[in-house]
Amino acid sequence: MHISRFIVFAFISTLASIAMAQEPIRKGTIGIGLNAACPQSELKDVKYDDGVEMNLSFLSRRFPYKSEINMQVGARMDFGGMGKENFKVSLATPVPDAGNYEVSNRTYALMAVGRINFGYDQKVAPFVDLLFGHRNYSTNTYLTANNPDKNPDYESTTFQGRVVYTKRMHYGAGVGVNYKLNDNISLQSSVAYTFGNAGAVMPLQDVTQSANGEVNFPYQENIKTDILLINLGFEFQLWKKYRTTSPSTQPNNSPTNTRYKDTQPTQPKTSDPVIKDRPKSEPPAPKKKAPLKIKTEGPKDGDVGN
Q1: Phi, psi (5° rounding) for residue 149?
Q2: pLDDT tens profile 75-114
Q3: Alpha carbon distance 82, 168 (integer Å)
Q4: Residue 296 has what pLDDT?
Q5: 107: closest CA among 188, 191, 196, 33?
Q6: Measuring CA to CA, how many Å separate 107 from each of 61, 110, 200, 295?
Q7: Strand pairing partners for 132?
Q8: pLDDT at site 284
Q9: Which helix H or strand E contains 18, and what residues bound it?
Q10: Which residues of 104-135 are buried (b: 16+ CB within 10 A; e: fewer)?
Q11: Are the C-beta atoms of residues 132 and 112 closer than 8 Å to each other?
Q12: Which candidate, 20, 40, 62, places its Cα nearest to that of 191?
């Protein structure tokens, strides 16, 4: 009897040790960082401003798994600003007021990524990226009142819309290196260059203001949208862990008889008609504020400037 108990105990202990010895599997990675976005080729020739972007990425599990040379696939998203200019204007409001007219360039990219890693679990691991997707270049304007209390029926800030919007295919490659800080986090640095098809862009140096207060946008057409991205950020390792379960020792308090039983309602029904509440009067809808507009009759007391 003692021998049989010992055999059962040894068998259970062996299974438990095997389950605990299973190594967590690396699933994929999530990256976050900042790009120095530097226009290249014809985009640089027209003096399109440099910018700063944030990037987010997701890469799959490495395959072949645990191989020194392995591959990942995933996606990357970049978004950020490429400079801005401000102009002083007069507003077309009942009470005379000055405003600020902001013109800003923005960029957004969504690209598929294929990565080749040279190293699996080492301290320093270089990699090569292949990129394919699209990148947007847009010029946006915002009009803000300097003294919004003077005209309470008007918005304090009004988005004037996109002046230029260009979405073009991009493809390219990059190189980088991961420096392993611990099993979960790596410091990442990379440089990537993508070639972009020609489109319309708005260099901010070309935006001017006329004597009557209007802001002019002489955009450039058929400009190649190449860009150089210098990235610094972090990469976070995702894990798939094994979980061991043990049988529950709690008593089963569920009822043994599960047959449906019809029960009487706690309150008897009544034949009296239900009197609905009188409809409540809805409060009047708030008055929508009017958007701001530039007054173009001419500048006032030195309001025009750059």
Answers
A1: -70, -15
A2: 999 999 999 999 999 999 999 999 999 999 999 999 999 9
A3: 17
A4: 72
A5: 196
A6: 29, 11, 13, 30
A7: 112, 171
A8: 72
A9: helix 2-21
A10: bbbbebebebebebebeeeeebebebbbebeb
A11: yes
A12: 40
The CA angle 20-23-24, to the nearest 5 degrees, is: 110
Conformation bin of residue 204: beta by default, left when phi > 0, alpha when psi is -120 to 50: alpha
- What are the structure tokens assigned to 116, written together? 């080749």
Question: Per the structure block, which two tokens stand in for 27?
Answer: 């699933």
Tokens of 249: 């020792």
Mean pLDDT, range 113-123, rounded to an integer = 92
188 neighbors 178 (Cβ within 8 angstroms): yes
> What sign results for the dihedral spanned by CA atoms 193, 197, 198, 203?
negative
Most confident of 9-18, 48-57, 281-290: 48-57
Asked whether the CA dihedral 177, 56, 106, 134 is positive or negative, the reply is positive
Q: What is the total residue count of the chain?
A: 306
- Both tokens of 102, joined, read 């902001």
Q: β-pairing, 25-39 with 51-59?
A: antiparallel
Asked whether the beta carbons of 38 and 228 are under 8 A apart, the reply is yes
pTM of the model: 0.72
Cα dihedral 56/60/65/67 (nearest 10): -40
